[in-house]
Write a structure and sequence with these properties.
This protein is an alpha/beta fold. The protein contains 12 helices and 14 strands. The protein folds into 2 domains: about 190 residues, Response regulator (Rossmann fold); about 140 residues, 3-Layer(aba) Sandwich (Rossmann fold). A 5-stranded parallel β-sheet has the order 2-1-3-4-5, sandwiched between helices. A 4-stranded parallel β-sheet has the order 7-6-8-9, sandwiched between helices. A 3-stranded antiparallel β-sheet has the order 10-13-14. The longest helix is centred in the N-terminal third of the chain and has 21 residues. About 50% of the residues are buried.
Length: about 375
């Protein structure tokens, strides 16, 4: 009995000793398995790399951030269960993610109701931050990025365009809506609008119709796997490089080059980041990422890297691992990272789209489009 009593006393002393074994719990819900895992794996890598630096000093006077990452597998129900685990079991002070807009529309209402700040790093669909006051995002919405991409297409002589999109997920539909609006504002003629399912593998009917209409460009809004399938089939059906391929945020992944290979050469996408950005912080990030993971980072890793620092900074400025205080601190964020200067708008979206560049795929890699 005496031994148990002494052990309990020792534990109590350690628990209240300043900085001793203290930890701040942060959660993440990401796709780590399944067809869309490339996004979540890149995001997790960016978060982990940032923590290497953050935890050298810690937060709140030296406490370490413990990041618990739950796999959603791209399934909305699994994503909701993951968020509930992080809140109920791990008592997290903030949640990063989930990966896809579809998932955020399911998870957001749950975390918002529980008043846990939730920061999406890759959720670009319209309406994300409308979910509630505890929902933030560091990813530029498609409405900021796609118009820049379409202006680049127009500057290359595009006057007519066919649009294709996956009609079974919110992200792809939202991206399509922005593509359509952008084309109309620029005076581009939309020759046809074709839909498909995100798990489809045969796009021949849609592409055969498009080939007959001979548009100057094809805009595709979907995740990278179906986009890659569309690109491969378009080229195999004889739609040549004279037809410019234009992608949304889902296309902005190295997976496009890995899957579609040379067929994707010449495709353009908009991005708030690119690997060769001539900035000391970005150069250091790319070098550190390559050293840790033996591969290049992508946009999703870069956004996650900055987001982990933004969340850590908010915890520090909050002065406590308290969800309400962290939420308030996030709202007043002023941060300069690999993505450039960052702040949240009053509606918790990124405050500027000045950093958007248009990238072009060549030989399996993205470079700045000329």
């Amino acid at each position: 009995m005496k031994r148990r009593y002494l052990a309990a006393c020792a534990a109590a002393v350690l628990a209240f000793a300043p900085g001793a074994y203290a930890q701040v719990q942060v959660g993440a819900v990401e796709i780590l398995s399944g067809p869309a895992a490339a996004y979540g794996i890149a995001i997790k890598a960016g978060l982990d790399l940032a923590l290497d630096t953050i935890n050298q000093k810690g937060v709140l006077g030296g406490q370490k951030i413990v990041l618990t990452v739950e796999d959603s597998a791209g399934n909305k129900d699994q994503a909701i269960n993951a968020a509930r685990k992080l809140i109920g079991r791990d008592k997290v002070v903030a949640i990063i993610g989930p990966t896809l807009s579809n998932e955020m529309f399911a998870v957001g209402p749950v975390t918002n109701e529980r008043k846990v700040p939730t920061v999406g790093t890759s959720t670009t669909a319209a309406g994300i931050t409308d979910i509630g006051p505890y929902i933030f995002r560091t990813s530029l919405p498609e409405s900021d990025v796609v118009p820049v991409t379409f202006k680049k297409a127009q500057s290359r002589g595009v006057k007519t365009i066919a649009l294709m999109y996956a009609n079974d997920d919110a992200f792809s539909k939202s991206g399509f809506d922005v593509m359509k609006e952008s084309a109309e504002k620029l005076g581009l003629k939309i020759v046809t609008i074709e839909t498909f399912g995100s798990k489809d593998t045969d796009f021949s009917a849609q592409l055969t119709k498009i080939k007959g209409l001979k548009p100057d460009a094809i805009g595709i809004s979907a995740l990278v796997e179906p986009v890659s399938g569309v690109v491969l089939q378009a080229r195999s059906l004889g739609i040549g490089k004279e037809t410019l391929l234009v992608g949304g945020n889902g296309s902005n992944s190295p997976k496009l080059g890995e899957i579609a290979g040379a067929a994707a050469d010449g495709m353009i996408v908009g991005s708030p980041w690119f690997i060769a950005k001539p900035d000391a912080k970005n150069t250091a990030f790319v070098e550190a990422f390559r050293k840790k993971f033996n591969k290049d980072p992508d946009q999703f890793a870069a956004q996650a890297f900055d987001t982990m620092f933004i969340v850590a900074d908010a915890i520090n400025r909050a002065g406590a691992a308290d969800t309400e205080k962290v939420t308030a601190a996030l709202g007043s964020t002023k941060f300069d990272g690999v993505m450039g200067p960052f702040n949240f708008t009053a509606h918790r979206d990124p405050g500027s789209n000045e950093g958007v560049v248009v990238l072009e795929m060549q030989a399996g890699k993205f470079g700045v489009a000329k």
